[in-house]
Design brief:
The protein is α+β, with helices and mostly antiparallel strands. It has 20 helices and 10 strands.
């Protein structure tokens, strides 16, 4: 009977993947009544031991597939794209589904990808194949629904309805209340160093379905492919898969609970944790006890060079700094430097693209950056960045106009008087200084850049004049 139930489930899921390929909505969406997935047979395991059936539920998998497809992402070790995976699932899902329900599914190794960090070094990601991403996402949806309500209110990373902005705002409120020293704890290569035995012991406290426990352990031990060679993984939960953030929150929730028992004010976003205290001396004591708990209880290593007890203005938290009295949140110096370097890359002389193409390539970055860092309380900084970006683009055009004759023609075409155009076009002054020249600014006004679709990082910057001395 159990085998019959699995066959029914697999056939129905196969139909769901086929309708996905034809662009059809599932029957339960079209009719608004009957779901495709039949209820489990009477012989299903006890409720607390049938978690895998919830993971393999048709509706859960349909949602998981839409998430994986929407996120796109690069192929794993098998080279299979998201589109190709759909064809593969149509053919092989009955086997995959049976293996999951039998507890015999074996994930493939993850593909190692290294992403440069802003402050140097690289962040190692592990990209699972698309099928494994689907299974991890389906597993995440079931486990997160159960686990997330039990996590600490001070944890903000990778949780539904919570964000980095909320964490920064809460940190700011602590400082405003007089907790004006911060214990900034940085964990060294946290995702690469999580102890598997400690992690699985925490998982097993919450899960009794041995098939799910075995599957999670299999994902942890799947191995990593780098330069064509597969290496075993004995520690770590590589970033890149949907499940890793939830597992990291599970491990660090124990640290959260310890801090809560000690009545500390703190904010944690993934492995980035700030604790707020009233004095330097209190901060040193908290740092010692926190370091001891993390190393002895969770076997994690604190990065001593990046951890410190300091005033809030001296430390950055999720890209922001907070004034010592809590009255203002600012964009950190490192975040501003990274922004400027990226704009310099996009507007460099050697690109040889038209201005419209340059603006097109900048748009996605600027909109995303504004969506996050627009949360700052320093509008003048954003307005100055807008002026600096426009000046970079004026410099880019000035270079493209090549010589005095072209420059004179372009300035005249844009309404500059003959005299001012001649003076500017014949000037031997360098590119950057000329980008701030009154004639160049007259020819390339702010509204010109608005008209070609250049986003502004300051929402209220339309009323702001250019400041030609801003930036370098």
């Amino acid at each position: 009977m159990s085998g019959m139930r699995q066959n029914i489930q697999c056939k129905q899921l196969l139909l769901a993947f086929e309708s996905e390929g034809r662009g059809e909505a599932p029957d339960d969406v079209r009719k608004g009544t009957e779901p495709l997935m039949a209820k489990p047979a009477v012989e299903s395991p006890a409720t607390e031991e049938r978690l895998m059936e919830e993971v393999c539920d048709q509706q859960n998998l349909e949602i998981a597939w839409k998430r994986v497809r929407g996120n796109k992402g690069s192929p794993g070790v098998d080279g299979m794209t998201v589109d190709a995976a759909l064809e593969y699932l149509r053919e092989h899902w009955p086997t995959i589904g049976s293996q999951l329900l039998d507890g015999t599914y074996q994930p493939q190794p993850v593909r190692r990808v290294e992403i440069p960090k802003p402050d140097g070094g690289v962040r190692k990601l592990g990209v699972p194949c698309v099928v494994d991403r689907l299974i991890q996402q389906a597993l995440l949806q079931v486990l997160q629904k159960q686990w997330d309500p039990t996590f600490s209110e001070h944890s903000y990373g990778f949780r539904p309805g919570r964000s980095a902005h909320q964490a920064v705002a809460q940190a700011q409120s602590y400082v405003a209340e007089g907790y004006c020293h911060v214990v900034d704890i940085d964990l060294e290569k946290f995702f690469d160093k999580v102890n598997h035995d400690i992690l699985m012991s925490r998982v097993s406290r919450r899960i009794s379905d041995k098939r799910v426990l075995k599957l999670i352990r299999a994902f942890l031990n799947a191995g990593v492919m780098e330069n064509g060679l597969v290496s075993p993984t004995t520690e770590g939960a590589p970033q890149g898969g949907p499940l890793s953030p939830l597992l990291s929150n599970l491990v660090l929730d124990e640290f959260d609970q310890e801090l809560m028992q000690r009545d500390h004010r703190f904010c944690r976003y993934a492995d980035d944790c700030n604790i707020y205290v009233r004095s330097q001396r209190a901060g040193e004591r908290v740092m010692d006890t926190a370091r001891r708990f993390l190393t002895e209880r969770l076997r994690l290593k604190v990065n001593e060079s990046k951890s410190a007890v300091a005033r809030p203005e001296e430390r950055k938290f999720l890209g922001f700094t907070i004034s010592n009295d809590g009255s203002e949140r600012r964009i950190s110096t490192k975040a501003l430097d990274k922004f400027r370097n990226r704009i310099r890359e996009l507007t460099q002389r050697t690109r040889g693209l038209s201005l419209s193409k340059i603006v097109e390539s900048m748009t996605r970055y600027l909109v995303g950056w504004r969506g996050y860092f627009g949360f700052c309380q320093t509008p003048r900084v954003l307005s100055n960045l807008d002026a600096w970006i426009r000046r970079r683009l004026r410099m880019y055009l000035w270079r493209q106009w090549h010589n005095g004759r072209n420059r004179f023609k372009e300035l005249r075409r844009r309404g500059v008087s003959k005299f001012r155009a001649a003076i500017a076009a014949g000037s031997p002054t360098g590119f950057w200084r000329m980008s701030g020249h009154p004639a160049v600014q007259q020819a390339l006004r702010n509204n010109y850049f608005d008209s070609i679709g250049l986003p502004r990082v300051a929402e209220s910057s339309h009323a702001q004049p250019d400041r030609t001395a801003v930036g370098t």
